[in-house]
Structure formats: C-alpha cells, structure tokens
C-alpha cells in the first residue's frame, strides 16, 4: 500500500518484534492504511527494512509497504503509537515488557500476537502483560487464528479473532488490522482465544511426530480430531467458551497448523518423528516453535484442573526421550467427545505407549 492510499484517519502503530509473524502483521497493519514502526533488535535488519523494504531473514521474497519503518530504539518505536502489537518469543515477553513499561502511555492499546504460555508461571500472554504494564486491563487484546505468516504476507485471504475484555477495544483493533485480505472477527473470550492458539501448537507437534514417523492421513486425522476434544476440555476447564474452540481461534488454527509444512510446530514434530532429539530440533529450527516450550506448563495446568490430555502427555514423553515417536496412540485417547466416543471395549482407554504397542501386536 502506497502512502497515497493512507486514509485521513490513519493510525500510528508499533510492532515489537521482527520475526516472520511480527513482520507479516506489520504488513497487515500497513495494508490496512496505517503508519507502522517496527522494533528490531539487530541494526542490520533495521537497515534492510528501511532501505530495501524487505526482511530477507524471515520473509524472503516479500516486498514491504513504504509506510513501514524500523528502528532498534524501543522508545522511538512506540513514540506516538496508539496501539502496540507484541510479537516476541513467549518466554522473552516479560523481559521485553520491563523495558516497555515506562514507555507505554496509559491509554495505549496493547495487543498480543503470541501463542504461548510463560514456562515459569503458566500464565497466558495477556496475563503477563497485565502484570507488567500499568494500563487498564480493558486496553489489552489478543489476536489468534489460522495465521501462517508467509501465506498472509503474500496476500492470501484469511481471517482471525481479536479478543479483549472490552468489546470496544476488540472492535478498535479489528478495524485497524482489517484489510482486503485479512478480516477480523471479535469476541470477549480472551481465555478461549489465547488457549486455542497455545494448545493447537501442541497437537501440531503430535501430528508432525507421526508424520515424521511415517504414518499417513488417517493417523493424523485421528490426532487432530481427538486433539480438538482435548484442547476444548482444557480451555473450558479454565473458563473458555466451548464455541470459541470450534471457531477460527480453535479448529481453524488447528487445521492450518497441523496441515501445513509452513508451521514451525509441525516441522519441529516431524523432526522429532524422524528421530532427532529435542536438542537437535531446537538447534535446527531457525525460529521458535512455541509448542515445545508450552508442553510442560500446559500439562501442569491440566493436572491442576484434573483434565486428562493423553496426546499432549505423549508428546511430552517424546520430548523427554521416554516414548518412541511411532508409539503415539491417537486412537486410544481417553477424552470423550460430545458424541460419547469410546474404545471398542466401552472404556475410556488411556492410550499410553505400552497399550499402543500391545494394540499393534494384536494386529500383527
């Protein structure tokens, strides 16, 4: 979008983070008619964005609008911004917020683009923001949905959910972020919208694992379907609306993340399924796969609410090296769906590796 297309009511907004999703969302905002300042840690990336309008490290081949500028100065990035969008690794959010806190105006809307939970506390990103920033909680929003960065950066149409405790805040963010190829829906279910984005990453890792282990579409479809039941039970236990999990922030994001080779979590899982260790996978990944860091805190939160998550538990076992990737058991999970699905003997079988091996031996 050229400067001539900027509307009279154009906003000045900031995006903190210059990875693939942060850069893509800066493009979304610019193509929605806004002036965008990106914050990047590395001066060489700042120079590339400002001089060539590209971010070749994370969005190769994508030309960025001229209404995007970049800086490595955090204060300069947020100066005059009516909305600040956060797109940093979830485990680094708090330290970034400490630096941002004295720079954020009391009426600034702060938007989380992240899909993770803090490992040390189990807190969602909006909760971490609320703890560290001295702003009205009603000014905090989250964005989630089927958001594969490269596809959106190419202008392929998609939709997402903007959630906030304040419907007015959600509406303002949605209007700012909407453009011809990116449509925003709104709700006030912050819990469900955030957990949908977090939990689908874990299921995507599981799908990637069985893909890497050589299993086909039936196995992957089983994990996705049973995984949706797991993440719905978990989210509802923590106060989410069940319908959120069947929408863009739940099922929509789950399908995109589990099915696409562009998904970092799916890629990480596929490497695990091929026999790489967790350490090797982290070393190979150019960007953060949020699902890997979220497994342990999500299982701790599930235990606190007595929610059974056998697929996620098996992912954890693969990460720890205690379960062969080929032994993940999607068909034997113990989470009932609304239809009341059960195993052949009528029980809600646990689906652990040993049981799955026994099941396979019976078929051999």
Q: Could you explain the architecture of this structure?
A:
With 364 residues, this protein is α/β, with parallel strands linked by helices. The chain folds into 2 domains: 9-188, 3-Layer(aba) Sandwich (Rossmann fold); 192-363, N-(1-d-carboxylethyl)-l-norvaline Dehydrogenase, domain 2 (Orthogonal Bundle), CATH 1.10.1040.10. Helices cover 48% and strands 11% of the residues. The chain is built from 16 helices and 8 strands. It has helices spanning 20-31, 43-52, 74-78, 93-100, 125-132, 149-153, 167-177, 190-212, 217-237, 242-245, 248-259, 264-273, 278-284, 290-304, 310-320, 353-363; strands at 12-16, 35-39, 68-71, 83-86, 109-112, 140-144, 158-164, 182-187. It has an 8-stranded mixed β-sheet with strand order 3-2-1-4-5-6-7-8, sandwiched between helices. Helix 7 (167-177) links the parallel strand 7 (158-164) and strand 8.
Task: Summarize it.
The protein is α/β, with parallel strands linked by helices and 364 residues long. The chain has helices at 20-31, 43-52, 74-78, 93-100, 125-132, 149-153, 167-177, 190-212, 217-237, 242-245, 248-259, 264-273, 278-284, 290-304, 310-320, 353-363; strands at 12-16, 35-39, 68-71, 83-86, 109-112, 140-144, 158-164, 182-187. It has 16 helices and 8 strands.
Extract low-pLDDT stretches. 331-364
What kind of sheet is the major sheet? 8 strands, mixed
Helix content: 40-55%
Largest sheet strand order:
3-2-1-4-5-6-7-8
At CATH level 2, the architecture of the largest domain is 3-Layer(aba) Sandwich
The percent range for strand residues is 5-15%
Q: Tally the helices: what do you get?
A: 16
Mean pLDDT: 87
| Alpha carbon gap, first and last residue | 60 Å
């Amino acid at each position: 979008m050229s400067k001539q297309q900027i509307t009279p009511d154009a906003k000045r907004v900031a995006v903190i983070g210059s990875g693939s999703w942060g850069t893509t969302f800066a493009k979304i905002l610019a193509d929605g008619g806004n002036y965008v300042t990106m914050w990047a840690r590395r001066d060489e990336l700042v120079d590339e964005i400002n001089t060539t309008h590209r971010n070749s490290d994370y969005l190769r081949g994508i030309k960025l609008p001229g209404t995007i500028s970049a800086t490595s100065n955090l204060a300069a990035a947020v100066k005059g911004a009516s909305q600040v969008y956060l797109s940093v690794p979830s485990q680094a959010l708090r330290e970034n917020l400490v630096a941002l806190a004295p720079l954020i105006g009391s009426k600034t809307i702060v938007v989380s683009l992240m899909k993770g939970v803090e490992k040390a506390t189990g807190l969602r990103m909006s909760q971490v923001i609320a703890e560290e920033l001295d702003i009205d909680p009603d000014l905090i929003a989250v964005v989630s949905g089927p958001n594969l960065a490269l596809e959106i950066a190419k202008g392929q149409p998609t939709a997402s959910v903007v959630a906030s405790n304040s419907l007015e805040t959600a509406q303002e963010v949605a209007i700012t972020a909407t453009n011809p190829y990116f449509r925003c829906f709104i709700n006030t279910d912050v819990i469900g919208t955030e957990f949908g984005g977090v939990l689908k990453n874990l299921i995507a890792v599981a799908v990637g694992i069985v893909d890497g282990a050589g299993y086909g579409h039936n196995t992957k479809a089983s994990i996705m379907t049973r995984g949706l039941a797991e993440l719905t039970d978990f989210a509802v236990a923590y106060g989410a609306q069940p319908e959120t999990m069947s929408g863009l922030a739940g099922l929509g994001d789950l399908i995109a993340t589990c099915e696409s080779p562009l998904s970092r979590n799916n890629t990480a899982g596929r490497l695990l399924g091929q026999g790489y260790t967790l350490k090797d996978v982290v070393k190979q990944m150019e960007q953060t796969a949020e699902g890997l860091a979220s497994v342990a805190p999500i299982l701790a939160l599930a235990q606190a609410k007595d929610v059974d998550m056998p697929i996620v538990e098996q992912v954890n076992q693969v990460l720890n090296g205690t379960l062969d990737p080929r032994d993940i058991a999607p068909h034997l999970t113990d989470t009932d769906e609304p239809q009341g699905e059960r195993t052949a003997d009528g029980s809600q079988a646990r689906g652990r590796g040993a049981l799955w091996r026994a099941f396979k031996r019976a078929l051999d």
